[in-house]
Every structure is written in structure tokens, then in C-alpha cells.
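User: Quick one: structure for sequence A, then sequence B.

Assistant: Sequence A:
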Amino acid sequence: MSRPRAALFALFVLCSNSPDAFAQDDRAAREERRALRVEDVGEGAANEALQAQAREAHLKEMAFARQLLASADLPQETRADLTLRLAELTLEESRYWLDVEMATFEEAQTTCERSPGCEPSELKPDHAESRRWQRQSVRLCEELLKSAPNYARADEVLYLLGITHMALGEVEGTLKHLTALVKTHPSSPRAPDAYVLLGEHYFDAGNPHKAALAYSKVLAWPDHPLYPFAVYKLAWCDYNVGEHRKAIDGMKRVVNLSGGGETTALRDEALVDLVRFFADAGELDEAIVYYKSLGEEDRISDLLGRLAQMYVEQGKLEEAVLTYRRLIAEDPNAPGAPETQNEIIQAYRKIGKKEDTLAEIDKLRRTYGKTSAWARANATNQDAIHSAMRFIEKNLRSVALDYHAEAKKLGTGANARKTYDLAYSAYSTYVEEFPAGEHAYEMRYAFGELLYTLKKFDEAYVQYMEVVKIDAKGQHSMFCAESAIFAAKEMVKVEEKEGKVQKADAKNKTAILTMTDWEQKQLVALDQYAKLYPQSDKTIGVIYQAGYLFYNKNMFKEASERFRTVIAMNPKSKDAMTAANLILDSLNLIEDWSTLKEVAKAFYDQPNLGDTAFKKGSTRSTSAPPSSSSRRQPRRTATRPRPPTPSWPSTTSSPPPRSAISRSTTPPPTTTTSSSALRPCRPASC
């Protein structure tokens, strides 16, 4: 292809600037590829220095041509040749100005992007100068045809008119002159070029039949440089009308036509496009044999990926899974293998096979995790390893949360329980793999809620405590700190049923008793809440509970410390009055009469502490104890006083009644609501 003609072909891309010219493929809107256009297979642009030299020569040549045309005694044929050359040079000059205009536009966009309030999308390139030169070229050609209707090179004039109208975005003028060229000069060297451009118009306009008719005309010139391109576009026309067999054969022909140069690039495109054609035709085995025969085994992976994606789009998810597995088998250590495994997971999720989904996620974790053989094989490709970990993390997280949400919607029954169990499995694996990751806080909170629902209180306790550990000031932390207390209390109930909890009775009314594991954990949770959230309206009840836990274990010193904190926080509260009663009861139990008298007086004198009955009882406590012969010694009953329910929700129970400072033989009224029911409930978890 000569340099002038290559330049004219390159100008074809100008039409893309006009929305009402030839319809352009929107690359972003299509799947992943589009058919090549004719400008894609032209010669590369010269470097800037050569372009500058060429323009300087063209300007001199244009000036000389105009000077000659000004002479009146030129022969008609010479004048026509000069006019045609001037029209070609004028179109070349429009190309220079188009480059200038686009460079100016890009610079304006860059400036706009850096300027507050400026919207780059509102900017438009100014093509006034390039179009002025294009219209000059049109006028020269039209004058030439009018003054020399029998001009021997009229076909070239018509071709130049056609592509100049194309550059201007004028479809009607383009079709008029290119059609006139192929009709009046069917044997012209420009005819195959015109047919290709006509084919491009109809192809982009969505008319593959007319496009194929135009492209097929080029086949009469087997030695023309655009012959392989015409075969290529004919294959695309066949594909677009569903003739997959013809399309495949056509693309194979393009590959065979490769003879180096521009056709080498076209061959590569044909091999890539054949992936789609083979996949859509379902000719997987033929494709594998074909690519292997050419030594193009790398294309097989592309083919399998394309075929699997096509199955997904068609809803054939089981077939997609099988194809993805075959793709992985082609190269198990390929950097993209985790992504392929992820596609299998997504297919099973769409099918609704929850167990298979979890199994495939586990395979993703085991096969492509940080310590896997795949990771060792890709040790130098950290991007691939990080990508694999992102797939693992995202799948575990989304499945756990989705199954959890689905289980809550199901409510009760076998399906709900099964879905809860699957969510449990996903959560468990997640916190094992990503114990302190970006989403660990939210995931541990959600996992704790699921565990509480499943009555796995021991595991729920662990997750709640971890949430608080990660961020004590986080959105869910206070709630989790409180929930950990309730989870521990539920586990203490289990220990009570197992006979592990030591209780005070007449035999060990003051002997220090050992706390069980869960009583100790309950105490840790209580103290944690009180320390982290001192301003909470529930803290006073939390501290009271910790004191009562010590009191029940005859650890009166530790109990007294917490009870006195309760009294100091709010002497008017029922918790404070009960705490004061229990302090006095502790002193009574250890028979420390002098301290009892002193403390009772202090409580009596303390403003706002206790009601009238409490004050009256405190007064009696200040008197000397009766002799053993005249007074019954204080004793423990089998049933110890129970603390009123803490401040969430408030209890209406009275403090334990006392009789002459002795431990009451009758426990106070208690609520029958379980701690699990009393646990605060959030909209996200209820």
C-alpha cells in the first residue's frame, strides 16, 4: 500500500468523531472484543520529525500547485492532475490540524481535571480548522469533476471525495461517491478500497448481509493488501448471523493467509476471535486439536474460559463448572487458577447448592492459600497471591453473612437449622483464616450473634470478647461486652447442672469457695464492662453482679469493694441498698461485731442510702449482739439470697429481707425470665 493511500485510509478514523456518521462499536459495552476496523490494520504513524518534514514538503508543494493552477494556459489533463494532487495535499493538511486540535483538547481536559468546579466531560474538541481544510478538498474535487467529466483518473477523485465526506461525518456524501466509484469504475485499483469502506459502514450499522456483499467483492482482488482483511470481516459477518461453521472456516482461512507484515497482526486477531467462534459453536474438541496443531496451546485456556462464561450467560451452570474444572486442569499452577476456582464457587451459589459452595470455598482455601503448593509455585507473583487471598476472604465473608441472613428469615425448622450450621462453618473458617483482618471486627460480631442464637454460649463468649479487644469503642463493642456477660452466665448454668458450682451452706458458711472456669470468665466480662464503659447506665448493675459473685464464694473483702463502689455511684438506687445489706450480712457471717456496728452506723448516717426499713435495720445493727444463750446464731440456709436482676431491665424485687442481721431464710422474689431472653437485642441481630 503506497504512503499516500495509507494516509487516506488512516483518515477513516476521523469519522468516529461524528455521532451521526458511521456507527462505532462501543468497546466498553461489548463483551470483551470487537471486530477489527480497517484503520486498525493500516501502516503505523511516522515519527514526529518525519511528519514535520513531510508537512513542510506538502506546504511547498501546495503553494507550487496553486501557482501553476493560476496560469491560464495549462492543458486540461495537467490542470486536472494538479487539482487532484492539491486536493490530496489539502486532506493531508486537515490531518495535521486534527492532531493539533486533539492535542489542544487533551491539554484542556488535563487543566480542567486540576481545576475545582470544572467538568471535563463538558469540554468538546474544536475541529473548525481541520474541517476547513477538508471542505477545501471537497470543493477542489467537485470542481475537477465538473470541469473534466471524462477525466481518466475520475475513480481516484470519487474515492477522495468519499473518504473526505467520511472525515466530515457526512454519511450521504460518503456512500454516494464510493458507490459511484464501484459502479462506474468496477475495475479501478480503488474499487477494493471503496468496497471495504462500504462494508465497514454496513457492518457498523448492524447490517451484516449488506456488509458481507461489499466485503465479498474484494475477493476478486486476491493480491490486494486488504484481501485478508475482507476475509476476516466476512467471517465476522457469518458469526453475526449465527453461521458459526462458516465463521470458523473463514477465520482459519485468515490464519492461513498470513504472509508477514500487517497480516501477522491480523492472524493474531483471528486466532483470538476463533476462541469466541469455537466456544459459541460448542466445538471444544476441534478447537483444542486446531490450536495444538499450530503450536498455540496458550489459546486453549482462553477458549475454555470463554466457553465457560458463555455457559454462565446461558444459565448452563453445571456445564460451566465442568469447563472451569477442565481449565484448571490445563495448568493447575496458573496465576489465574484461583480466579477460575472463584468462578466455580459463584456458579454453585447461583445454583443454590450451599454445601457444594462451602466445599469449593474450602478447596480454594486449601489449594490456593498462602502455604499451598500453588502459592510456592507463584512465589514471585505477589499480586496473584494477594488476589487469591482476596477471593478466599470475600467468599467466606459473603457466604457466612448471606447464609446467616437466610437462616434468620427461615426462622425455625430443619432448613433454618441446616442453614445456620452452614453459616457457622463459614464463620468458623473465616475467623481462623483472618483473625485480625480488615473485616474481623464485623465478622466476629456477626459470628457471636449466630453462636448465641445456636446456644453455643461458650463460643459466643470468645467472639464477643474478641470484638471488644479489637476496638473497645467500636459500634458493637458495648453490646458485645454485655453479651459476653450473658453468655458466661449461661455457661455457669451448665456447670451448675453438672454439679461443678460450689455453694455455701451450713457446713461452709464462711469458707472461701473456688470459682469454676465460667464463673471466672463471667467475672472477667463483668470487670471489663465496668472498666471500659463507666458512663453506661448499666455499669452500676454490672459492678453489683461482680460483687455478688464474690459474695456467693465467701470472698467478702472483694465483694465489699465492689458493693461500696455501687453505693458510691448512686446511693439512692435499689442496687446500692442491696449492696449495703450484703456488706452488713457479710460482717454478720464472719461475726465481726465491732466492724458491723461501725459500718451499720455509717450506712445509717449516709444521706439517701436506703429506705425507712433499711435505716431501722441499720439502727438495730449498732446494738451489741445478744449472748449465745439468748440469741440464735446467724446461719446459712440451703438457698442463698439471689441478687436482683441488674439494671437491664430494672427489677421490681426488694433487697433480701434481713432478720436481726442474719441471712434470710427466704430468697427475694426473682424474675423468671432467662438471661438469654433479657439480653439486649439489636435490629441487626434479632
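Sequence B:
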Amino acid sequence: MTLKANSKITDINGIGDILSKKFEKLDIKTVKQLLFHIPFRYQDSSHLLSIQEFIEKGEGTFIAKIIDVKNAYTRFRKIITTVKVTDEEKTLSITFFRQPYLSKILIKGETYIFDGKVTKKNGRKNIYNPKYELFKGEKEKQRNLGKLIGIYPETKGLTSNIIRKNIYKIKEDISKIVKDPLKQGDLETLPNAILKVHFPKDPDDIVHGRQRLAFDEMLSVAFKIEKNMSERENFKSEKIETNNKLVQDFIKSLPYKLTEDQEDAQEIILKEINKTIPMNRLINGDVGSGKTVVSAIAILNTIKQGYSAILLAPTTVLAKQHYDTFSTLYKGFKIPIELCISKEKKITKTKNKLIIGTHAILFKKDIPDNVALVVTDEQQRFGVEQREFLLTKSNTTPHHLTMTATPIPRTLTEAFFGNVSVSEIKEKPKGRIDIKSFYTPYRKRDDCFKWIAERIKKSRYKEQAFIIYPLIDESDITNTKSVLKSYEELKEKYFNDIPIAYLHGRLKEKNEILNDFKEKKYNILVSTSVIEVGIDIPDATIMVIENAERFGLAQLHQLRGRVGRSSKESYCYVIPGNSVERKSEGEERLIYFAKHDSGFDVAQYDLERRGPGEVYGTIQSGIPNFKVASIHDLGTLKKARKVAKEILKKDNNVDKILDNIFR
């Protein structure tokens, strides 16, 4: 049978229903999917040692001839198989446990390759259960040992050896099965790349093969970026001219001076909304860097020039906070502001206004038809609904400004927000004091809470503290602290004479509790990460995060950003669970966090160690799950974008290419 890319995997000789179901667990149903199942690492056993070298080194791969094979029973009636081998210079005994069939499989007089370790027991050196394979005379003919082999993502009952064995069956047909839709002279052809990553002769084969596969993965991203950019040029937006006097009057009304980053960002935003091509810009700012004020300048200018603007927030709490913030910022500028949330949904017929609300706004029919600017806070939480609004609500496309609450490293913004212009705001407003962060070992937890109690009392109950936990209730599965149980402990043991409350996502009265906390009815709020984004309590000066190893570093940084929002000295304590070991990866992450106050540094560190899907949420952010490519490889991305642009100029239908490239 002639195999094709879409042939069922059962068309490969030897793969029946039972084995095919195991392959399905790895999402492998076709021949193409099998060939595109790529090793995630490689094992090199090509350097063959003599028996003497193997013993001296204590591990490795050696070649020897079998001179005897015997089965014997231990006193506990367990079968052991002893294999005596030689390489003409030295003889060695190897022991296998519970594999009596080896006496029939291993053939006396034949030469085998063995791979294993030397184990010392009772003063003697022993070799237990090494891997083995019959030596076929040449390294190239070996399947698993004596050569460079790939180690694949596996599942129960489906080892790398089995996967490799079945790919080997179609090795000679790869050039017929895999079609290359691209011509990239400086890269391997796709069939050659597939052949080299599965059956490399040397490390260079792996490098060259993976370079082509990484390019293909980046190309699929590049097509999306370039397509979105070309589509945007076909849409028309309102040209919003800049009222320079208005802008300067607003900036002068602020109780602080804008930072250089804020100045640069607001200037370029005003330039871009003064064009008929829709602006699509991301404000990538650190916690407390003043992103909101920059957006306020653009919104003010838009409304005063005769248009309306919308500000989207991910939660009702944050929408209300934005309403309060903008009401204060625009005091004296006569800007109509309407809040559109679940309890206050009505939108009036007032012209030229700011509407603030959650994404529920996008489904309302009474939105003004003169919306010229949409600002989205915490952009990664919005998706299809927002895009539909931008394209269908009016004859013109509103300018679009997004703000991220989580700093995104430059490598990620270029790779996955490539169709968006980016303004970075790293400077903090003058007057803000850096938050003092501490890694606090579990054994010092008691001292930490006692210090907090003293601090609040010395401040005459003016200062406030957040204490954060990963869970609402106790869990039998994990040894992790929770809000409800810890609240009782904290209240009785440390803060019995200090007003304390708790908060979590299941409570209906979240807004009331936060308002009471802001008005200092409580000095301590025990909470889950529900307070992570946008909560602004100026007198909150202490943040404690228990079981901090359970949070990503970007999330820890967001939580840290809930304090230090005034000129008062502020503190953040990250406390690990009592199961986190010294010098473990979990402890190292928390120590790094405590030593770095830049959200960009923290995000980059987390990104490199956990990957974008773990840090930002693969589904939420639309970040592809690369098999080969690295998000840090901007060189390959730039090359892919250039190729994508050239292809799209000639043919806008790229489905055939996408169907055939590696991804």
C-alpha cells in the first residue's frame, strides 16, 4: 500500500487497533502526525567503550560478545539471569532480574551493545538490567544503541523505542509522504528535516533539521501577524485631531509630573489616533507605572473632539475603580462618564462621553454610534467579542488601545503581539518608594505576623495589610493553606485586637468588603488572588503571600503591586509552604522574586523557566504550544515574517502552505 500524509496510522505494517489507541493518546492518528511527532531530547550512545573503560567510568555504552547465559533462583524464589560477556581483553558478568526469557533471546557467541551503570554493593561492582541490542556490524544499522537517538514524548505502553521502531518502517517513504510547500534555499527541505530529526547521523543533523521545523512553526505565527496588519489597513477610523492646549491643561492638573515613558507613550498615541488607519497599540507597563493616566489623555482628547470612548475592564470591581479614578482625573473638565455593569447597565443618550464597563458592554444595542476609541484594560482577558465589536458596531473602526496588567517581555510582544505597536512604561512615578521584598522561610512565619501586628499598632491603625492564600478551603490532596482556615488562625493567634476580614471569589459582597477595607474598617484583609489586578488601597503597605511557590512570578508581582501605591514605605513577604526544600527550584524562584522589583525582569525569568503557556495561559493568550521553536528566537521570527509578507503579496490564500508545513 502506498502511504500518504493523511493515511491512517493503522496502514503502517504492524500497527493494529490496540497500538493505534495508544498512539491516539498522543494525538497521533495519521502517518503525517506520526512523522511530526518530534523528539524532545536526544541520547548519544555512539561512543563505544571497552569493558575496562566502562568499569572505570562507572557508566556508558560498551560492546561485548556473550559467552554464557544462565537462569537461577534466589533463596526468595526470584529468578535472576546472569550473562557473562567478553571483549577479548576483559570478562564481565551482568545481572538481569525477573527476565527469564533472556536465556532464549540472548544468543551465545553473538556480539551485543550494552548501556548501563556500575553499582557498588557489599564492596563489589555489579551491572544490573542494562539496555541491550544485537550489534549489526555498523552503527548506522543500529536501532536504539550505539548511535544518536531521539527520546520522544511517551504515554503508557508506548515507549520511545516503539515510536522509533514504527517511524523506521516508513523511513524510506518520508520524501514521498511529506511535501514541501516552501523553497528556502538556506534551510533544509521539509522531508530532509523530518529525516534528520528522527534519524540523525550526528549533532549537526539535529541542528539543521530543527532549524527548518522551527522556521515552519514561526511561519504559521508570521502569517497571522502579517494578515492582521494588512487587514487593518483596509479599515477606516475617525481622524481625531489633537487639542494641544487641552492636553497640556490636563497634564498640568495632575498632582505629579509625567515620567519620560508616559510622555513618549501619550505623544505617539495622540499621533496615531490622528490618522484614518485604526491605531492598534499596547501599553506594556509595569505595576504602578501610570498606564491609566496615559489612556486618560487619549480618552479626554477623543471626547472633547466630538466622539465617545469605551473603557473595558475584566471585572466589575475594576470597572468601578476605573469609574472613581476617571471621575477624579476629569474633575473640572466636564466629561460625562457612565458606568455599565451588571447592576447599572443603562446607557443614556448623552453624546460624546466615556462609558466604563465589563465586556458585557459589547452586547448592548444602545452604544453610541460615534465611538472612536476603545481602551481595553488587561487585554489578554478579551478576545473574539472585542474584535467583533471593533468590526461591526459602526461604519468606521474605532482606534484600539490596550493595557496589560502583567509586564510582557519584549521577546513575547514581538512574537505574539507582532501586529500591535507597543509602548513600554518602565519608570515609576516620582514619589513612589520601592517596595521592600523579602523571602521569608516558613520557620520565620511566626515572627513575620508578630511584626505586622506591631507595625499596624505603631501606625495607630493607619497602615493596612493583605495576606494572600492560594485556596479558599482546605484541601485533602495538597498541603496548602487556605483563606477560611488561616483567617481563624490569624485572628485568634496574631491579630485578636486588630480589625480583620476575609475575601474570596465566591462571596457576593466582594465590593462591599473592599470598600470597607479602603475606608479602614479593617486593617487586615485575608484573601485569595481575587485582589490581584487593579485594587488601589493607598494605605495598604504590607503584602504577605503564603504558599508563594503555588503562584507564578508574574502573579506574585501583581500581588506585590497592590501595596506601595503611595509615598509610604511598603513591604512584601513571600512565605513558602513547609514542604518546600532548601535550595530547591521553588525556593530559588522566590528568592529571585524578592531580589528583583522590575516586573519585566520577573516575567522574563518566569518565561524562560516555565514557558509562555504556563505563565500567561496558552488558551487565554492564544500563544501556540511550540514543539521546536523558541519564543526567544526573534531572528527566525523576523525571517518568517519577511517570507510571510512576500507570499501574501502574491496569494492571500495560504491554507495549502499551512496544511503542509510543520506545526
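The first strand starts at residue 41 and ends at 44. The radius of gyration is 32 Å.

User: Thanks, that's what I needed.
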